[in-house]
């Protein structure tokens, strides 16, 4: 099993250093650094307004940072659009999943990248190919989509989340950014999604898992970073921080001082 213990930039897929993002007078990010490498889940925790969405939008090419460095595979990049981020292997699964509930599972799976069959001047959506791939990709993760033509809205919330992740993996993502993938799910569905996140990680992808839920983070995370008012309060490997301490950090860093002493000043 792949397990990275450090965060040196040689093996990081993505690294950002000191990223700042202003919206007019609002400082949404105030010097954020993080990295994620192959085969690891980095959990990004933070309360409302901490800057989580702004950070993932910066990573996924929606926002341009006001200042700071952004490296992919150790090389500086500047994304002009989400397409640039996708081309660099960074795929973001937003909470609304960007799916059309009444369209079929396979149509949603291939949305925007429809396989096309051509004969002479005629071309059309290659439904057979799309159905086969969708069925096979979902089977691999233990979800039996009996009919890939069924509307995606008929799947459970956890299954839909898995479809969105499987779609990103199939199209070659190296880093997956998951925005609160478990926040709307019950226990069984959450466990399905967390298991899948772990499976994706063990295949060598890097995952940035954004959540409010420390338990969900702790279940699959290799490293944790807490955002608070646009700043990272710290970055910890799992063996460096207990779940209670992580919860305290989330709660606003009230225990920060004592924790910092406990950890030998790593904050
Ligand atoms: N487009 C924008 N224009 C102006 N201010 C913004 C914009 N986007 C975010 N902000 C501000 O930046 C700060 C961080 O917001 P952000 O949405 O990144 O937080 P968040 O951690 O995602 O919160 P939540 O958990 O509520 O989703 C907030 O003060 C927010 O009001
Ligand atoms: Mg948000």
Could you walk me through the main structural features you see in this protein, from its secondary elements to its overall organization?
The protein has 267 residues and is α/β, with parallel strands linked by helices. The protein has two domains: 1-89 and 175-267, Rossmann fold (3-Layer(aba) Sandwich), CATH 3.40.50.300; 99-173, no CATH class. It is 32% helix and 28% strand. The chain has a six-stranded mixed sheet, sandwiched between helices. The protein has a four-stranded antiparallel sheet with strand order 2-1-4-5, covered by helices on one side. Helix 5 (157-170) runs parallel beside helix 6. Residues 1-10 have low confidence and may be disordered.
Describe this protein with a few key phrases.
32% helix; binds adenosine-5'-triphosphate; 12 strands; Rossmann fold; alpha/beta; disordered N terminus; single chain; globular; binds magnesium ion; 267 residues; 4-stranded antiparallel sheet; 28% strand
Task: Describe how the helices and strands are arranged.
Blueprint: E1 12-23, E2 26-37, E3 40-46, H1 52-59, E4 67-72, E5 75-76, H2 82-87, E6 90-93, H3 105-109, E7 116-119, E8 122-125, H4 127-140, H5 157-170, E9 175-179, H6 187-202, E10 206-211, H7 214-220, E11 223-228, E12 231-237, H8 243-250, H9 256-262
Parallel strand pairs: 3-10, 3-11, 6-9, 9-10
Antiparallel strand pairs: 1-2, 1-4, 4-5, 7-8, 11-12
The site of magnesium ion (MG) has 2 residues, from helix 1.
């Amino acid at each position: 099993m792949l397990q990275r213990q450090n965060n040196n930039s040689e093996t990081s897929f993505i690294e950002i250093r000191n990223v700042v993002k202003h919206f007019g007078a609002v400082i949404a990010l105030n010097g954020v650094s993080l990295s994620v490498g192959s085969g690891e889940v980095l959990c990004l925790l933070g309360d409302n307004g901490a800057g989580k969405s702004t950070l993932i939008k910066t990573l996924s090419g929606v926002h341009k940072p006001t200042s700071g460095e952004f490296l992919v595979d150790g090389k500086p990049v500047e994304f002009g659009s989400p397409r640039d981020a996708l081309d660099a292997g960074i795929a973001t699964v937003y909470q609304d999943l960007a799916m059309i509930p009444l369209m079929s599972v396979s149509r949603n799976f291939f949305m925007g990248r429809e396989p096309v069959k051509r004969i002479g001047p005629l071309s059309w959506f290659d439904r057979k190919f799309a159905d086969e791939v969708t069925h096979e990709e979902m089977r691999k993760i233990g979800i039996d989509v009996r009919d890939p033509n069924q509307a995606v809205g008929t799947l459970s919330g956890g299954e839909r989340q898995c479809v969105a992740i499987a779609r990103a993996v199939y199209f070659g993502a190296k880093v997956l950014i998951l925005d609160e993938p478990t926040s709307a799910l019950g226990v069984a569905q959450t466990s399905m999604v967390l298991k899948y996140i772990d499976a994706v990680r063990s295949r060598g992808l890097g995952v940035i898992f954004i959540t409010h839920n420390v338990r969900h983070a702790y279940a699959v995370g290799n490293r944790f970073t807490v955002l608070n008012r646009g700043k990272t309060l710290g970055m910890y490997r799992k063996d460096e921080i207990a779940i209670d301490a992580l919860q305290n950090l989330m709660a606003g860093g009230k225990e920060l001082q004592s924790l910092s002493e406990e950890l030998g000043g790593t904050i």
